[in-house]
Amino acid sequence: MFPTRLLRSLRYCLVLAVITATGYVIVAHLSRPYIQQRSQHKVSEEQTIAENNVLTSDTLYWPKPPTALVIGNKLWTGLPITEAKETTYSLDNPKTSYHVGDFVNVTIVARDKDGQPKIHGGDYFQVRVQSPDGDSAAAGQVIDHDNGKYTAQFRLFWAGEVKFNIRLVHPSEGCYLLNYMWEVCPLRLTFTSTFMGNNGSSETTECNVFLDEDVDQCDYSDQSSGVSWACVKPKTLPCSSRVDHKVDYDLSHHLNKLCFFLPSEQRHMISSLVTYDEEKGGTFKKTIKGRPGSINVNSTYVPIKVSLRRPPCESGIPTPSAPTTGFWHQDVWTSTVCKNRHFPRREHYFKCLENKELYFMGDSTGRQLYEFLVFSILNTTFSAVDPSITRRAGPHYAVHKASNLTLRFRVHGPPLRTGGINVTHINYLADEISSVRGGPDYVIIITMWAHFTSFHYDIYIQRLRGIRTAILNLLYRKPDTIIVFKTASTRTGVPRLSSDFFSSQMNKIIRKMFANVKITILDVWDLTLSHKNEDIIHPKQVIVRQEVELLLSYICPS
Ligand SMILES: *[C@@H]1O[C@H](CO)[C@@H](O)[C@H](O)[C@H]1NC(C)=O
Ligand SMILES: *[C@@H]1O[C@H](CO)[C@@H](O)[C@H](O)[C@H]1NC(C)=O
Ligand SMILES: *[C@@H]1O[C@H](CO)[C@@H](O)[C@H](O)[C@H]1NC(C)=O
Ligand SMILES: *[C@@H]1O[C@H](CO)[C@@H](O)[C@H](O)[C@H]1NC(C)=O
Ligand SMILES: *[C@@H]1O[C@H](CO)[C@@H](O)[C@H](O)[C@H]1NC(C)=O
Ligand SMILES: *[C@@H]1O[C@H](CO)[C@@H](O)[C@H](O)[C@H]1NC(C)=O
């Protein structure tokens, strides 16, 4: 079900100034009570199953503080909130010696500002182990016992010192508030488009996933692609005269105030809850104290890579329940999921990619992979014959004649959180997937998450459904097409728009949505979380290179 129930409860409006080329200002009043339940496009049986899987399961379950309530835009937590300074961890069953390959557990005890233990779960932690220089690192997995205690599970991958690093990203009350905001403010960003007339006149209007139904609007939705998109209809120009797409932060800010207005002391509380510092402009994951800070690990006779007994990298293999999908050693990622390969020289890349056509589709975190191949492997520069093609939006195309390799990039379209997108260059991904010829030489790499964290999850789910149907149709037509879905990675940013909490929930949706489809989930979450340069929306080249090599491991498993 699309979130009609939630969205119907909304009733806020805004005033949008529309500046025309002739210089006067039109003021449009928009109110946006709800999105109309759209008549559902006929879906395949399989798609219906996926839909039910996602929506009836506990996929997005997150424990809620039992006494928290929002009344009249004020959060009442009832019980005191979790305080990072008082929260500690300790090692379970300390042993006299540890060996590479061992599993270790750490217990986290959440406490409030008075040092009193918390009695419920829902705090969001990120955990990892690192060598003192940070060159060796691995993520861990957190189990929430919903009683104020958490188990962080780790595996030991290297000999020597292993330091624990446990960080509180959001206290449970912060997660609660983020989930609440997500429900009352399903659209936390808004956009505008400019329309251009033949005689040089222009108008700019607001656009979003949906608008108030009684506003005259241009509908750019496409049911089968899972895209819902509309702009306020310009007063004098036709819907077909839309030329660009851009995010409007000022208008978004205004809108958010209307849908979730907070008095200043509450704003302060939110900032401290979600550990976001407006001035420094980042999310701060607060490191928790504990004992021991580190343990010493002895090597084993059998090297870890041998004892892992990994299968070759092939699509459709399940993710093991191991506490991490791999580990770092000196900027080289070793996957624990499958036997990932490394490609030390350009020739190794060309050998793997000979006669292949790679389609990168989605957001900039996927474009980074495309650009790594183009700039660092093909050794060409960005050049577009058409000046309206920008680096951000593309579409891009690069060829390596000697190895008959073709690379393409296409952006996923609205709700792209950028400006200056020429709408003629936007093609919805499901259509793009359907247009691929397919077969063993065709590889599609989809990355779509970062621009959806400021919207209700259902908007993301709807889009993924369209993509899933297009993939199923392509695989029906050409079963040996290689399809890869790259997950979200860790980042910093304004929590309300970009929290890792939202992205980590979206990764669960991706896994659920493609659970029975023969595609590869290129899981890069632990990879960015554990690297010493973690938490940058656009990871550094050393990280991107390992992401590309992991991708190539699936294209050329041996
Ligand atoms: C770690 O904790 C989990 C969950 O509590 C448990 O299943 C597992 O056996 C523990 N592992 C070790 C090595 O103690
Ligand atoms: C340009 O065209 C629009 C729409 O057709 C019209 O409303 C407007 O008056 C025209 N402007 C000029 C300067 O001719
Ligand atoms: C493990 O290493 C420690 C030093 O860190 C050493 O004292 C101990 O004897 C080693 N144990 C084994 C079983 O190798
Ligand atoms: C180049 O690769 C494509 C598949 O991507 C293939 O169809 C074509 O035959 C190849 N051309 C040559 C000359 O090998
Ligand atoms: C990449 O291209 C530049 C300029 O075309 C050239 O100077 C350089 O040697 C090339 N690098 C490699 C590794 O081929
Ligand atoms: C948008 O792209 C089209 C096709 O490439 C081009 O003709 C047009 O001039 C571009 N519009 C703008 C505003 O750059």
From TrEMBL:
Question: Keywords, A to Z?
Answer: Membrane, Transmembrane, Transmembrane helix
Q: Which domain of life is it from?
A: Eukaryota
Provide the NXPE C-terminal domain boundaries: 333-556
Transmembrane regions: 12-30
Pfam families attached to this UniProt entry: Neurexophilin, NXPE4_C
Q: Record's family? A: Belongs to the NXPE family.
Quote the protein name from its UniProt record: NXPE3 protein
